[in-house]
Amino acid sequence: QVQVQESGPGLVKTSQTLSLTCTVSGDSITKNYYFWSWIRQPPGKGPEWMGGIIADGAAYYNPSLKSRASMSVDTSKNQFTLQLTSVTVEDTAVYYCAARVPGPWGPGTQVTVSS
Q1: What's the maximum distance between 2 C-alpha atoms anywhere in the chain?
Q2: Integer Rg of the chain from CA
Q3: Integer Cα distance of 102 and 104 in angstroms
Q4: Which of 75, 78, 110, 80 is nearest to 97 (CA)?
Q5: Residue 17 and residue 28: Cα distance in Å, rounded?
Q6: Interval 4-26 mean pLDDT
Q7: How many CB atoms lie within 10 A of CB 105?
Q8: I need a surface site. Which of 5, 46, 79, 90 has the fewest CB within 10 A?
Q9: Residue 85: pLDDT over 90
Q10: What's residue 66's pLDDT?
């Protein structure tokens, strides 16, 4: 059974780029039946799907992110990543990764953006 685990910096300053990594175990990230996704949940708000990527690198993003997000797959490490540029305090959230949506998420990683 595939499992995912998020990792990230915890604290980022405004205008910087946030980089998060999702490590996959239990299966290969190269399998094309997965849609590797990032979801976030700001405090007091509902979850927001940010984007997803498949093994060949084709990525799809939530238009609300206004081209600030980019995702990539690292097959050598069985990981996929998210970069979010020009962060603001509104990007403070718990960030989750998933092998598919809908589907189970990882445990999540808290990201706080400070000014």
Answers
A1: 40
A2: 13
A3: 7
A4: 80
A5: 28
A6: 97
A7: 20
A8: 46
A9: yes
A10: 80
